[in-house]
């Protein structure tokens, strides 16, 4: 047997192996890989300004995926739920659950929330919307992100399971009817994508205005 | 962006089996190979604009999978299990581990040094020419030929006597 015959025998083995992993699974994993390169994770944290505009900082667990909403072409094949950057779900009683996975498509999130009756400004540029003015609240009006205290954000809750970082998103619930008169929300990000422990999602109470929340001011 | 998935899906369907085979021949275990190849394809998807412009995207996947295998091995700080020829030949599960590949071939390939296995994978199983194999591995074309020559000599000395013996029986 010469080298050519040996090579032929070796190459004959190729047809005996079949890769069984579905392409959808590969792409799903690819999104996580890409997200991991773009958005770092950090530990959870909360910031609230007492008797002032209330801000909630949500940090991302290490390795948490940042994935954009599926494009139209990708939607043609049934994607996993986790492929979406965020989802907005209207719940019984009129509250709205926002499940957040990645800071992409702020205009889409803003449009979706406004369509559900939430006066809101969404920016993922690392900067707040300069057109937005803080909405000062009294202590009794301040929402409470963790417990059962009623408020515009009932906080039912901020979910953080680092051990399932690729499958468990953050979620928070907005009750539009509980927003103080003339108050809306500003959702924005801060920090440095790519730098660990330094990337946060904020939800802030702001005064409604056409330039900020797309709704008339009080 | 919207063309990423159809293009990638087509590439995946066309190249997945040969990539898996090339990696399997190097790592010697079907499940490990499939994990590594899946991860490599996922990375290819994540960098698809770049990988699709690569002169040999399948080779990129194989190289990435093999590098991931080395990294995994270093993290675990233990030896990559290399099937013993005598043991694997008698082991009923050998076919399952190799996904239907001749266990003797797998065992012989597993005995080759890592670089020789990589050259065999790219040159023989992905059908890359010497120049392209050299570029993918970052070595000189002459080094590719030297590694391939040594690998073929080892495979010849190991496999041919066994096959000849089997043919006499």
Can you put this structure into words, describing what you see?
The complex is a heterodimer of chains A (218) and B (169). Chain A is α+β, with helices and mostly antiparallel strands and 218 residues long. The model of chain A is unreliable at 39-83, 139-168 and 194-198 (pLDDT under 50). Chain A has a four-stranded mixed β-sheet. A three-stranded antiparallel β-sheet of chain A has the order 2-3-5, with helices on one face. In chain A, strand 2 and strand 3 (96-100) form a beta hairpin. Chain A has helices at 3-12, 23-38, 72-75, 106-115; strands spanning 55-59, 86-90, 96-100, 120-123, 170-174, 183-191, 199-207. With 169 residues, chain B is an all-alpha fold. Helix content of chain B is 78%, strand content 0%. Chain B has ten helices and no strands. The termini of chain B are far apart. Residues 73-97 of chain B have low confidence and may be disordered. The chains are: A alpha+beta (218), B mainly alpha (169). At the A-B interface, helix 1, helix 2 and helix 3 of A face helix 1, helix 2, helix 8 and helix 10 of B.
Q: What do the pLDDT scores of chain A average to?
A: 63
Rg of chain B, please? 17 Å
SS class of chain A:
alpha+beta
Ranges of chain B where pLDDT stays below 50 over 5 or more residues in a row are 73-97
- Uncertain parts of chain A: 39-83, 139-168, 194-198
Q: Sheet with the most strands of chain B?
A: none
Largest two-chain interface: A-B, 32 and 46 residues
- Our estimate of the beta-strand percent of chain B is under 5%
Largest sheet report of chain A:
4 strands, mixed
Question: Which percent bin holds the helix content of chain B?
Answer: over 70%
Q: What's the N-to-C terminus distance of chain B?
A: 59 Å
Our Rg estimate of chain A from Cα atoms comes to 22 Å
Shape of chain B: globular
Strands of chain B, total number: 0
Total number of helices of chain B: 10
Mean pLDDT of chain B: 77
Span between termini of chain A: 90 Å
Gross geometry of chain A:
elongated
């Amino acid at each position: 047997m010469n080298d050519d015959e040996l090579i032929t025998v070796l190459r004959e083995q190729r047809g005996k192996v079949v890769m069984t992993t579905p392409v959808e699974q590969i792409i799903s994993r690819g999104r996580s890989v890409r997200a991991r390169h773009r958005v770092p994770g950090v530990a959870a944290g909360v910031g609230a300004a007492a008797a002032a505009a209330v801000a909630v900082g949500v940090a991302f667990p290490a390795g948490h995926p940042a994935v954009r909403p599926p494009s139209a072409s990708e939607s043609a094949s049934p994607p996993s739920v986790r492929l979406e950057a965020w989802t907005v779900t209207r719940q019984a009683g009129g509250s709205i659950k926002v499940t957040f996975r990645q800071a992409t498509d702020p205009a889409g999130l803003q449009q979706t929330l406004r369509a559900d009756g939430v006066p809101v400004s969404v920016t993922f540029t690392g900067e707040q919307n300069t057109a937005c003015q803080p909405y000062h609240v009294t202590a009794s009006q301040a929402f409470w992100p963790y417990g059962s205290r009623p408020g515009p954000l009932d906080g039912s809750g901020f979910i953080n399971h680092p051990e399932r970082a690729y499958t468990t998103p953050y979620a928070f619930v907005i009750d539009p009817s509980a927003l103080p008169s003339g108050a809306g929300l500003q959702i924005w990000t801060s920090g440095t994508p790519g730098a660990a422990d330094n990337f946060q999602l904020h939800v802030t109470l702001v005064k409604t205005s056409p330039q900020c929340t797309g709704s008339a001011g009080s | 962006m919207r063309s990423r998935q159809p293009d990638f899906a087509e590439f995946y369907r066309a190249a997945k089996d040969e990539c898996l085979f090339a990696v399997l021949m190097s790592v010697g275990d079907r499940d490990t190979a499939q994990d590594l190849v899946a991860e490599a394809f996922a990375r290819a998807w994540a960098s698809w604009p770049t990988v699709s412009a690569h002169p040999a995207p399948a080779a990129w996947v194989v190289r990435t999978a093999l590098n991931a295998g080395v990294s995994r091995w270093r993290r675990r700080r233990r030896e990559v299990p290399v099937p013993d020829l005598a043991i694997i030949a008698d082991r009923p599960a050998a076919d399952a581990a190799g996904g239907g590949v001749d266990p003797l071939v797998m065992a012989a390939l597993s005995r080759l040094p890592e670089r020789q296995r990589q050259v065999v994978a790219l040159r023989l199983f992905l059908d890359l020419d010497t120049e392209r194999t050299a570029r993918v591995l970052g070595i000189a074309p002459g080094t590719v030929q030297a590694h391939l020559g040594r690998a073929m000599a080892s495979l010849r000395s190991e496999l041919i006597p066994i096959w000849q013996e089997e043919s006499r029986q």
